[in-house]
TrEMBL record:
<dbReference type="InterPro" id="IPR038740">
    <property type="entry name" value="BioF2-like_GNAT_dom"/>
</dbReference>
<dbReference type="InterPro" id="IPR016181">
    <property type="entry name" value="Acyl_CoA_acyltransferase"/>
</dbReference>
<dbReference type="InterPro" id="IPR017469">
    <property type="entry name" value="PEP-CTERM_FemAB-rel"/>
</dbReference>
<protein>
    <submittedName>
        <fullName>FemAB family PEP-CTERM system-associated protein</fullName>
    </submittedName>
</protein>
<dbReference type="Pfam" id="PF13480">
    <property type="entry name" value="Acetyltransf_6"/>
</dbReference>
<feature type="domain" description="BioF2-like acetyltransferase">
    <location>
        <begin position="161"/>
        <end position="296"/>
    </location>
</feature>
<dbReference type="InterPro" id="IPR050644">
    <property type="entry name" value="PG_Glycine_Bridge_Synth"/>
</dbReference>
Length: 354
């Protein structure tokens, strides 16, 4: 009797992101596996174009079929060090694999790639990690909820106290626009830069937002709230698999008394539903922080997010957590910088955060 035909083994290799056919294959795999926008090669390309950080990735396949994908950004910064990040500037994007074994194979090759690339750290945002990696799920939570069937039902779905704030915002003399034209982009960047400066954080380069908008096309837009033709709150959102992701958003000092942020998120919920979305991903927040409580006030339940990292022997793990005591004095100093100065030098610093 003939011997049984041996099962093909799984191979793991670097991906060629210059190959349009490979990009299409990866996009199909992300959709099939119900991955996030941060798993998409389109995200990697936008990050590379907008920040100059190198995009790469590792695939696993068996019998010519994809079984796993690990998107990676090679982050390098004189301030924050070097690391392979899955996925750069995202809140998710870790190994997307059919089995835990495949995920571990991807991670093992990431270790080798990190050493070859002089990156002492590999960071995973989500996904399965090997048992000998450093893993945690107590630093951040995600907030996701279904959208209601109509505008009024959406308002009634918000808990009473927060709903009262939304109702007040609806009575204020505010205008809402949605688009991706230069006026939308300039308004968003102005508001976002002020918002992060108030938090003591350097603003990302505007080229990053432009690259994401251009790469995602109709799957991204900007919603802005205006008061007397001045933008006071604005958010850049992604649309992926019937879910809206309000990703980069913020408000000016004036937004607080105008309840502009409340108006912004409520209008985005209604806008996303009209676009065909049925879920709202409020993004991640540090556990126990102000934004964490704010999202709970909207009725969203926090879900702990799992992260992991590997560090080469003899090196320290990269730590870019702003809650770290090492950054507290720098954050306080950054808040005191004049906004034009912060906007000038901030992008050069922030593009290394990944």
């Amino acid at each position: 009797m003939n011997a049984p035909f041996p099962l093909s083994t799984e191979s793991v290799s670097l991906v060629d992101l210059r190959d349009p056919g490979e990009l299409a294959r990866l996009e199909g795999f992300v959709a099939e596996m119900r991955g996030t926008p941060f798993h998409r090669p389109a995200w990697l390309q936008a990050i590379a174009k907008g920040t100059g950080q190198k995009a790469t990735g590792i695939v696993a396949e068996k019998c010519g079929q994809l079984t796993g994908w690990l998107p990676l950004t090679e982050a390098h910064s004189p301030i924050f060090g070097r690391a392979l990040v899955s996925s750069g500037f995202g809140v998710d994007g870790g190994p997307l694999a059919e089995t835990p074994e495949t995920a571990e194979n991807l991670c093992r090759m990431a270790e080798e790639l990190a050493i070859r690339s002089s990156c002492p750290t590999v960071e995973l945002r989500g996904g399965h990690a090997p048992a000998d990696w450093n893993s945690w799920n107590d630093s951040h939570c995600g907030f996701v909820s279904d959208l209601a069937d109509d505008d009024e039902a959406q308002l009634l779905a918000v808990p009473r106290k927060q709903r009262a704030e939304v109702r007040k915002s609806l009575k204020n003399d505010l205008k809402v626009t949605v688009g991706t034209l230069e006026r939308d982009r300039a308004a968003h960047y102005s508001v976002y830069a002020q918002s992060v400066h108030n938090l003591g954080t350097p603003v990302f380069p505007r080229s990053l937002f432009n690259a994401v908008l251009c790469t995602f096309g109709k799957q991204a837009d900007i919603l802005t709230v205006w008061n007397n033709n001045i933008p006071v709150a604005s958010v850049l959102s992604l649309y992926h698999q019937n879910t809206v992701y309000p990703y980069w958003g913020g408000g000016t000092f004036a937004a607080r008394h105008l309840r502009a942020n409340e108006r912004m998120y409520y209008e985005l919920m209604c806008h996303a539903r009209k676009r065909g979305c049925d879920r709202f991903d409020f993004g991640r927040s540090k556990t126990g922080s102000g934004p964490y409580s704010y999202k709970k006030n909207w009725g969203f339940e926090p879900e702990p997010l799992a992260y992991a990292s590997w560090t080469a022997a003899g090196h320290q793990r990269r730590d870019i957590n702003p809650n770290n005591e090492a950054y507290s004095a720098k954050i306080a100093l950054w808040k005191k910088l004049p906004l034009p100065v912060a906007n000038l030098i901030g992008p050069m610093i922030a593009k290394g955060l990944a």
